[in-house]
Amino acid sequence: MKTKQGFHAFGKEIRRNWVLFLMLLPAIVYFIIFSYVTMPGAYVAFVNYNPNQGIFGSDFVGFKNFEFLIKNGDLLRITKNTLLYNVVFLVLSHTIQITLAIMLSEITRKRFKKVSQSVILLPHFISYVVVGVFAYNFFNFDNGFINSILVNFGGERFSFYSTPWVWKFIIVFFYIWKTTGYGMIVYMATITGISSEIYEASYIDGASRFQRIKLITLPLMKPTFILLMLFGLGGILRGSFDLFYNLIGTNSILYHSTDVIDTYVYRSLVGSFNFSSSAAVGLYQSVFGLILVLGINWIVRKIEPDSALF
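RE: above sequence
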């Protein structure tokens, strides 16, 4: 009975807002085709895949593909790298985005404000391939920009592409440089949506600019921050493949410090055609992300129900 009532209410909602549902249709079709229809392909992670036999004709091996990844240490290494990089990305990027959004919102000169927004947002539209070219021209040993400066000042050349530890900072820098502008715009939109009457009332009460930021702006930005953090945590095991691959490429010297799940899966497919191991890593990545999102969302719902996703 309740099920029929639910379907009846849903049908009534569709008839009332059919235009909005029509706008949602392309996204729904996309996810059905590329996310749900392809789900049976996860079975590859549990077989010794043979292209001639097909997915369901290949020999079933259970969890041996996962066992192999754990025993050879690859799974632990790439999981650790992916988690650490993404945690740093999340913390630093959101901190810088919020800071810049508040700073720009406090600027009264519209011309300077528009130019600053454009300059900060510009890297978002630059391809990661171009970013990789920038990095190579900056850091290559023979005629890179930095090594040329070092030589001109009487110093010795530094081999960036054979020094793994330095790339932890380079990768984080380029990620922040490229993504800060877009995230900043999201936070600025949140600040713009705050009623000016609240600021006017606080100004009349004698609140300073820093007090207004601390007591009004930051608390009202919290729901947006929590929402974006939940989305970010959902993909915490999905490294930015374009960034890592275009900066590191196939330089095996740097793999220990820079290898993430996405680049590992790519090399498994392209280099050794190991479909089963790459599928096992991909499935592990998805299940871990799902559990993490559900867990964090449950905690948020207990603490602050209005900020939870569901």
